[in-house]
## 1
Amino acid sequence: MNQTIQNPILKGFNPDPSVVEAEGQYYIAVSSFEWLPGVRIYRSENLVDWNHETDILTNQVDLKGNPTNCSIWAPQLSYSNGTFYLVYTDVKSTHRPFKDCRNYLITAPSITGPWSEPIYLNGSGFDPSLFHDRDGKKWLLNALWDYRLTTSNKSSGIVLQEYDTEHKVLTGQMKKIFDCTYLKKTEAPHLYQLNGYYYLITAEGGTGVNHSVTVARATSIEGPYEVDPEFPMMTSSEHPDWLLQQAGHGSLLKTKDDEWYMVHLTTRLVEGKYAILGRETAIQKVYWDEAGWLKLAHEGKLPAINVPVPRAYQQHGGIVETKPRYFKDDFESEQLDKEWNTLRIPAEEDWLSLKERPGYLTIKSGESLQSLFQQHLIGKRQEEFVFTAETALVFEPEHFLQMAGLSLYLNTENYLYLYVTYDESLQKCLRMMRSVNGNFELLADKVALPENEPVKLSVKVDHAKAQFFYHTTKEADAQKIGTEQSITFLSGGFTGSFVTLSCQDMNQFKGCTAAFQYFKYEGK
């Protein structure tokens, strides 16, 4: 029986993968945008079973005020002579015609650090990639943003510049080595050396329906680069009903047994339209044909849903299983579980604590859910189309500007929030709010809550629908609040939907505290 890997291998918000082999292990780094800690790292020994190993960016970055869909883009992870290298972009604005971005390099002796302080490289574009040449030289590649172009997307090709490791600066002249094909929007460059050629792999067509992988090659690192005459190498653009859409942004890997695989970005759409889970990571088996061009092992250009496992994995008789995600946090540790992320600011004890009230997560109130600065919120990625999430909250608000609760959250303009707050007539009560593309609305009737008692809050999500519930000591069972809600608006952009716990006080910053007793997420 042939064993296969089922795509995607990293579900939910895990875009722009970069893969590398180091010290007998495989690692994938993915983009994190405005969520911290930044640059999530997954590890595998066999390319089949992937586990969240660590996150790299914590206090090295300042994302406060960065607009939605900006911040940490397309990290590239590499390894050379016992050192890990990570290059990444911190995007500060994308308002046309310009794109304000800063490319950085950090290094570490181990994937878990300690990581060096960031070295600023340049700002001519995004998606940096560091290539370690066999002669010892190191080269930085990135997409070039040309504000003079009259088109909306101004990615004009790929540029190359040498990196001086001694002085930790770029040196020599920046040279444009690749222009876009007719697909345009060329980005995500990765360079490989094989059989006398430098192979340049890029993403083209944008990250939407036309997303593709293009391969070019040259005998000199500075070109000229010849495009594969049968490009694009991979795309889903002509198959809108295929499970794996928007396939592109490929990164290559040669296994210990000389097999080749490529990880890439993909999206699974709800109702054929809505990327609620965000952009995910898939894997493909590939090979080099007789003419020296990269091809999908199953032929054609459409990404495979099921991919052959490496030979070594077959020999060991492993069984490939895909299980829904289950995560339970009882908040009994003194450190926040690495499954959680925060928004634009790191998790620090001045607003978040697991020690202040043992057995609880306490969050001191921050700004509103639309703030770009001080959101006191933790979030867990949505990984399945169908799941339930639940928490128990202890919170005694004294003003209508104080609130705490459970939300489905895409970004500052798109969220559904079930929260405990205060009302002049009911005192402590439960409410729901919704923001769709920045259009705010209060939902459902207010529900009075008993004082000095915890309340359970939960949500059931089934593809494009969500139903919220609450449960107090007065009810035998959980009670629905409001009607079933469409969550199709929790899609689009560069990230995916999160389940979040948060606390706000728009009257007094850090004026109140919410205590969460546990959190449970169960995929179906």
## 2
Amino acid sequence: MTTTATPYRSRLHPARAGFGRLLHAEWTKFRTVRAWPVVLAVAAAVTVLICQLGASGSSTSGGGDVTLGPDGKPVVDVFRFTHRPLTGDGSVTVRVTGIDSADGKGLEPWAKAGIMVKSSLVQGSSYAAVLTTPAHGIRMQWNFTHDTAGSKTDVTRTPHWLRLTRTGDHLTGYESADGHNWSKIEDIRLTGLPRTVQVGLFLGTPAHQDVHRAFGGTSETYGGGLVRGTYDHLALRGSSTTSWTNTDVGGSPDGPAANGPAPGNAVPPGTTAVSTTGTYTLTGHGDIAPAQDGPDLVQMSFQGVFVGVLFMITLGALFMTVEYKRGLIRTTFTATPARLKVLAAKATVIAAVTFTAGLLATALGFTLAQHALRTNGFGPPEFPDLSLLENPALRAVVGSAALLSLVAVLALALGAVLRNSAGTIATVVVLVILPQILSFAFPLPAAQWLLRVTPAAAFAIQQGVTHYPQVQYNCLPESGCYPLAPWNGFAVLVAYTAAALLLAAWRLRRRDA
């Protein structure tokens, strides 16, 4: 005959164990076990040291000429432009009849053919454009970082009308399927737009980029793209004193654009041809977009956090499992029968001490790493100064400290479930650290899947580069790029930690100590 033992419950009234007293008791446990404060201090020191050493090992020779946009950030401003000056208010209208590849290598999804108002021919100057793309329909874009979607018309199959009007600093983009019924896409304001601007047809395409990843490594090929666009019914309303002029913005009449591909992949200058029936055919290359190929100086400043996570996992696990190993958990639950309060107090204490230490470590580590990067050549204007008290640096510093804290709480919660130090540490390492390592070796789709569904997604909080949806880019884990946005990735770790705490609470209520 078998009997089921009834879980032990103290006869002391739970009211005697107020939560404030529990917090004090758990804090006393933490600070009186000498090894734990030592581990916390070592974790902070190692995090700072590796942040600095990691940045010191990075160097750059400078990327040459850098084009800065209206907001002072690096941009790509290279395209074929058939234009004329417009003084005062007016509008430009055209029908785009087709866009296709001119180099036989396929048409890029973000190839662009349309009309533009640009403050000058200087690279990086402000602009507004209404354009067609092969895969993303009709768009209105301005000042490199702004994008509004219009209809999803496929201009490679169906001609489409575009119109851009100027009234002072205000510009409005329109589209039409028939040239009679117009739909507004967006109305914007370009502050400081000069009285005389350049308006006309433009054409560009991002370079061809192919990435192949396997267990043996990563290969990336880059080659200049060349695109062809056809237009008709070009009409300009407003005051203009000269005829149409053709320019490769960012290039020269005799060679490829300065911001284009490397010389080995050079593409010829753009061309403009006009038929007797008024059809314009432009060929060109380059792009009009934020620059997305530079290193992430914010993410490069937090390499020590990856190692600091190992210390926090160990600390969080031991803070719970040591009491099970030594049988002290019975004493704890005798003094405080409200087991969930004990779990909450332990989680609060470990979260507070690890966040405090993590915040000091990440703030100091970031500051020292930025100094090391500046010493090694990562300086303005190509790499603008980053302030610790402004985003994205502030978000990365505080988010990294919160990451370290949540990892410790996750380990504590799983320690309450598994009640074994080695098993708990190994489990959390597999969840948080192993996906990071495997992502460097797995094929890219599998690597990005791992970094979406595991707690390792939280490292996205360290990203400092904004990835714009209107720019095609290769998100490689080894480059510090994560498939989720910073706070979305961090939310994955929050969800895992909350689930582990709920499981720990269920385990504590269901089973004896």
## 3
Amino acid sequence: MRLSTGLISGLSLAAAAGLSLVAADFAVTAIERGSETGIRRALDEATFDWAEVRADGLKVILEGTAPDEATRFDALSAAGRVVDSARVIDNMQVAATAAIAPPRFSAEILRSESGISMIGLVPHDTDRDDLGDRLGRISGPDNVADFLETASYPVPEGWDDALAYAMIALERLPRAKISVGAGRVHVTAMTDSPEARTRLERDLRRLAPPALDVALDLSAPRPVITPFTLRYVLDEAGGHFDACSAPDGDSAQVILDAATSAGLTGSGRCTIGLGVPSPRWDEAASLSLAALARLGSGSLTMTDADISLVAVEGLDHGLFDQIVGELETALPDVFALHATLPVPEQTGDAGPAEFFATLSPEGLVQLRGRVPSEGFRTLADSFARARFGSDAVYTAARVVDDLPIDWSARVLAGLEALGLLVNGVVTVGPDTIEVRGVSHVEDASAQMSRLFTSKLGETASFDLAVTYREPPPPEDQPLTAEQCELHIAEILSNGKITFEPGSARIDAASLEIVDAIAGVLDNCGAIPLEIQGHTDSQGREVMNLELSQERANAVLTELFARRVRTSSFKATGYGETRPIADNDTEEGREANRRIEFRLVRTDTSPDDETTLDALSGDADAEAGIDADAETGAETGGTEETTEDDSPAPDADGATDGDTDDATGGADAAPEAGEETGNEQD
């Protein structure tokens, strides 16, 4: 049967359509695979291994999590360079940005003679006005330069303590750089002397809060020694230094080693300072000491570049010339040697030409002996009165003729030397000056040696026997913890701290007592002190405990407001648990309502008696308190005066709390219509 033409045409068209669909499917698949492969290769080359590629027809879908927005955009650009960007569908995510860390707060505070400057970054909550006022009180309000920046972040732990301590250090250091950070302070400063450095370092470490990291870099400049002096005396008893100067520790050791070889007895010490006339000072000193040792006895005086070598009478002239000649040849060029071999004088006995200046331990000065003129006697008397006080000088010197031409200079130099003693005597003779006594100045002999050689010349002869005695401690030494406890007890023996009825607010009449206690604690340092609150047994136990804690806290707050360092204090309320008297009587309840100041003792047993226990023991005996009934009670201590209380029933029939008598002692009658008793809010 023959197929019709129409059927053949239809079948042909259907076959062509099917072939077209198959071809289109193959084409789409090829495009998808090509696009996906090309984009994946481009992303791999750009190291975007976090990105995933998925083709859907002509669309190319990018997925994954980019580390940041810029990287996401770079991935889109890489895909757009392979296929038309309109075909790219962005389903990528961006990783969450980490929280911005707070900045590191720090401040640099510089103080000099011209004023104070601050620079750095501080928390926004820092009280800049208060900080500026405190610095203005230190150096003057017009001498403070504030270059601080602020940031609105929480105040880090330890920042306030560090800034407060920096202000304390700044008050004591006229030239300093203080670096402040959270919980740390670094102080760099220049002090006037080694003694001042030691004292400041001790005081600053004592004032530092326990949790604060404090670094102290305090330096003391080397003193300028003018003239640069060394004096060494060698006799039958051995050798000793009257003065020794050295530019550094190594030179000092070289000189001391040479002195040891030259017969030094005991320990020697050289003052380290500036002003050495030559870097070969220690070499010249060593050579001169060796020459003196060969002479056997005598004295060596070095004043800057001048060296005076004095032998003793009777030495062989030939030996003397040989030793001196060898020393002159060996000395560095800058040094000049003056050698003396004394010759006995043949003179008649015209009586001793002497002048005496005596200083007693009480500070009284007596001038005796010979002076060349009436005018000089008046001058010596005025000089002594200016140095030792107008009422402390008695002059009984005699005017005589034929005194040595340099007598006036010798007497005045002797009076200056006397000013370095706390008691002693200066004897001025025609050939030598003798100084005997006690001094609080550690290098008094060295200062006297420099004084005599500068005033009287390098060949001046003097004999020093000055003993150093450590000066007594200053009167303003901090009190010991036990002394502080005792002084507080003495203050409170004349009155008590009182509170307004039914509250923890200190009564105005008691603020003077708090002021007095704060005055004592200012001189006590960081002592471990517990402020204890106590009540009687009237009222509910829980409310009594809370009220006692609030009142102890109130006392601590008042002390802090008076700028007392309270970092080592703690406030504790004990309620009615520690009575010291019988709660069945009004007098006993009055005694039990109190505030006590107790040292925190970690090395005593519960039976040990404190300073305040001893003070209150006699008072308890006079009051007839049965000690056996007070087992576990803490007697003594500083007490709070409370208001005369009578129990008043509350809504449920119980009596509450403590109130205090504002009179601080005797029972006070309540006003008409006022409830008495231990009221609590």
